[in-house]
Write a structure and sequence with these properties.
- The chain is mainly alpha-helical and 181 residues long.
- The chain has helices at 3-29, 35-38, 41-49, 54-67, 72-88, 117-129, 143-150, 154-164, 168-180, and strands spanning 110-111, 114-115.
- A two-stranded antiparallel sheet has the order 1-2.
- The radius of gyration is 16 Å and the shape is globular.
- The chain starts with a helix and ends with a helix.
Length: 181
């Protein structure tokens, strides 16, 4: 695929996702609740094509409606990283797995004094692989304050976790660099 084709393809999925998200926000604001009610079959196919689920987008819509965040650029950024991972690393094929809530480090777990960091690392890995259980959200009401306090954007953190692979030291070094700034 040449550069122009890639730009057109990127613009196309972003336009479609933006439409889908804006419709979901309006439908939610009109009182429709539940991931299974917010999206049409065509929407669900579109989400699957980019490695997303109705539940994870519903969670973003619900939090944005209820607490004003995450904003759409953040949702788009996170979804972009997941899509890239899905297409590049997973060749567009879902893993078919979900992590268990019991697999996550406790909310109070710390890594070199950074309470919540072990948990959000595992959540980011699960988000990248598309393995989030329905009751879990990346960039949730616990993740956002943690990242904001450190001056880290949720999209940048997700990209860092992808780049680091299983090298937790690389993630920790990134967090330390960002929290100094």
């Amino acid at each position: 695929m040449n550069s122009t084709d890639h730009q057109k393809e990127t613009a196309s999925w972003v336009e479609e996702f933006t439409r889908l998200y804006e419709t979901a926000v309006q439908t939610f604001a009109n009182g429709t609740r539940g991931a299974n009610k917010l999206f049409s079959d065509a929407d669900i196919r579109q989400l699957a094509s980019i490695g997303a689920t109705p539940q994870e987008i519903y969670d973003f819509v619900e939090d944005c409606h209820d607490v004003g965040e995450p904003d759409f650029p953040t949702v788009l950024g996170i979804t972009t990283v997941r899509r890239e991972y899905f297409l590049r690393e997973q060749n567009g094929i879902p893993s078919g797995k979900h992590i268990s809530m019991q697999d996550l480090p406790a909310m109070g777990a710390a890594l070199e004094g950074y309470r919540w960091l072990p948990r959000i690392i595992e959540k980011a890995k699960a988000k990248l692989r598309g393995e989030m259980p329905p009751e879990l959200m990346y960039a949730c009401g616990g993740d956002r304050p943690f990242l904001r306090k450190l001056g880290i954007d949720p999209t940048d953190f997700l990209r860092t976790v992808w780049k680091a692979g299983n090298d937790e030291r690389q993630i920790l070094d990134y967090v330390k660099r960002q929290s100094v700034n």
